[in-house]
Design goal:
The chain has 375 residues and is of the alpha+beta class. It is built from eight helices and 16 strands. A five-stranded mixed β-barrel has the order 4-11-12-13-16. A five-stranded mixed beta sheet has the order 7-6-5-10-15, with helices on one face. Strands 1-2-3 form a three-stranded antiparallel beta sheet.
Length: 375
């Protein structure tokens, strides 16, 4: 911690560093009229205190619940955690604000089978409030159930099929979309969406929202990292791209106004980022999305990077379940799914099972056609 007599030295060092830093014409401070004045109560801080021993007991309970299930051969480990982050921001433009964020988490990963026939799966839960966390026993049982269903996977013939993305995977598609509309990528012209503002990217029933004021959200905050008042931001409305993700610097580069999406670490300048990002629910159930698929792939896990943000080309290793006549028939692995994200966006249908489990969330998604490469 700093002593009062250290502040002069800190200020002198900062000035010396600034003198040796190249000029950046886009660095700016928020105007007085734009800084946040009133901070909403986001209900994202839980005063519940939990001891290290209690956290250890949670992890052990989750692991024991999984290992008790017949057929589970071993555990890759369980863990639980809790923490509080507290942000203070004071700026020379007159802004001063602070907020706290709590989190609690628990996960377990287990194995089924032996040797080269071994399969694994996991369950994870993270919440701002302890009372909202899945129980350790439920986490363990779900992890075991998922692992057991993955036994004896098969391969499938390479062709073009409908692909259904489990919510654990569908959120990654929304994250890739957010990367493509990040102000830095747009300013550098390094995104496949750089010329797509106000264009129809998704079907008219698709809405994508970023909400920093989501009650009990894992990434909720009352102001952004530059002291701007933030609000719910619609990125996709009725399938049409509405906004880039901007901080002050990228907004200035693009001749626009910041939409208060600045984030920062303790040793880095602000950069554009989302908060609680999600795709809204669709009108059908996940079962209905699968129901008319004669042959298709239900994805529960993807591997590797495989996303080119300049061209939009998408190719990732995947595993999950094969769909036959509207039902999950058997597990499959060593699969590659490929397409271009523009085509994926156009042919996407959401289910109505959205849950806020992560900072970025989406319901089950159906993509009408992707290349599924197997045998």
């Amino acid at each position: 911690s700093l002593r009062p007599d250290q502040f002069d030295d800190l200020a002198e060092r900062a000035v010396q560093m600034a003198r040796h830093t190249p000029d950046d014409p886009y660095i700016d401070l928020a105007r007085d009229t734009d800084i946040a004045r009133d901070f909403p109560n986001l209900e994202n801080y839980d005063e519940t205190s939990i001891s290290p021993n209690d956290l250890k007991a949670m992890a052990l309970e989750a692991e024991s619940a999984a290992l008790e299930v017949k057929g589970i051969s071993n555990s890759e480990g369980a863990e639980s955690g809790s923490g509080v982050s507290e942000a203070f921001l004071v700026s020379s433009n007159g802004f001063s604000g602070t907020y706290r964020q709590s989190y609690f988490s628990c996960m377990v990963s287990v194995l089924v089978g032996e040797g080269t026939g071994m399969e694994r799966d996991y369950e994870y839960s993270a919440k701002a409030f302890l009372e909202d966390l899945q129980s350790p026993k439920e986490i363990g049982k779900k992890a075991a159930d998922r692992a057991l269903k993955r036994q004896n996977p098969r391969k499938v013939k390479t062709d073009i099929y409908p692909v259904i993305m489990d919510p654990r995977i569908s959120s990654s598609l929304v994250r890739n979309f957010a990367k493509a509309i990040n102000g830095r990528s747009i300013a550098r012209k390094s995104s496949f969406l750089k010329d797509k503002m106000k264009q129809q990217l998704f079907s008219p029933n698709i809405q994508i929202i970023d909400d920093p004021h989501l009650p009990r959200g894992l990434s909720s905050k009352p102001f952004d990292a530059e002291g701007l008042a933030n609000q719910k931001l619609t990125l996709i409305k009725e399938g049409v791209l509405q906004n880039w993700i901007l901080d002050l610097s990228t907004a200035k580069q693009l001749g626009l106004k910041s939409n208060a999406r600045a984030a920062r670490g303790t040793s880095s300048p602000p950069h554009p980022s989302t908060t609680n990002l999600y795709m809204e629910n669709g009108d059908v159930s996940a079962k209905q999305l699968i129901g008319d698929v004669k042959n298709g792939f239900y994805v529960t896990e993807t591997m590797g990077m495989g996303v080119n943000m300049i061209t939009g080309d998408f190719s990732q290793g995947a595993s999950g379940f094969w769909i036959e006549n509207g039902e999950l028939a058997y597990p499959v692995s060593e699969i590659t799914i490929a397409s271009n994200m523009l085509e994926m966006f156009k042919n996407l249908t959401p289910a109505n099972d959205l849950e806020f489990k992560y900072s970025t969330n989406a319901p089950t998604l159906r993509l009408e056609k992707m290349t599924v490469a197997g045998e």
